[in-house]
Amino acid sequence: MEIRYIGGPTATIDFGGVRFLTDPTFDEPGDYPLGGGRTLTKTAGPAFVPDAADVVLLSHDQHPDNLDKAGRAFLERAPLTLSTRSAAERIAAVRALPRWEEVEVEGVRITAVPAQHGPDGTEHLTGEVTGFVLRGEGLPTTYVSGDNASLDVVREIAGRIGRVDVAVLFAGAARTKLLGEADLTLSSAAAAEAARILGARDVVPLHFEHWKHFTQGRETLAPAFAGFAGFHLLEPGERISLS
């Protein structure tokens, strides 16, 4: 498999001959309204925009740092976009994949797994989110967390799926006025603990830079994963091959 980092939560994952794209965000830097008088500020654009993808793995659609205007246009030409029931209700191009259900694409099994975008009991505020697990014969089991802040959710996934070879973890300890000092995504320390829980051999973090509401980034991820041989902190546009 090969992962190429685009920026924010967005990367291509070439897996068993299928090209996946995570949370497409291709808009330029600027302020993006979130509703309720809140605004998210993007500080950097994408390293590149892929021409196409076979499957879009959309963790959720309700926040512009996970799906922006250009990302929505990309969904219109993507053969398949998988996401939550809520996203499917709002976007015609999205196919709902409920938690723990699976779909197979060219020999690759895609399983929707839980994600919790904040502390316990806040889903009515942050909205429905999903993660994904990719599996295939002779391929590394790969977990894409989406915007998840809960290690209990990670433990549940590990209990159901078993050991994960590659963990693509959305980090950054995102915070907004909605929940004050509460983390909406994994902190650097929590990401390192998630990797331990999953037994991951390789970790590639996403969603830790290019937006002002991240409270942690490269400077905290590297120390948190000190001594972890399979930690890969990619630069925008950089790619890595894993087996």
Task: Describe the fold and architecture.
It is a single chain. The longest helix is centred in the middle third of the chain and has 11 residues. The chain has a 7-stranded mixed sheet. Strands 9-10-11-12-13-14 form a 6-stranded mixed sheet, covered by helices on one side. A two-stranded antiparallel sheet has the order 4-5. It has 6 helices and 15 strands. The model has no long low-confidence stretch (mean pLDDT 96). The radius of gyration is 16 Å and the shape is globular. It is 20% helix and 29% strand. The chain has 243 residues and is an alpha/beta fold. It has one domain: 4-Layer Sandwich (Metallo-beta-lactamase, Chain A).
Going by helix content, strand content and strand pairing, the class is: alpha/beta
Fraction in helix: 10-25%
Q: Might you state the CATH topology name? A: Metallo-beta-lactamase, Chain A
SS element count, helices? 6
Q: At CATH's second level, what is the architecture?
A: 4-Layer Sandwich
Count of DSSP strands:
15
- Percentage beta strand: 25-35%
Domains (count) = 1
CATH C-level name:
Alpha Beta
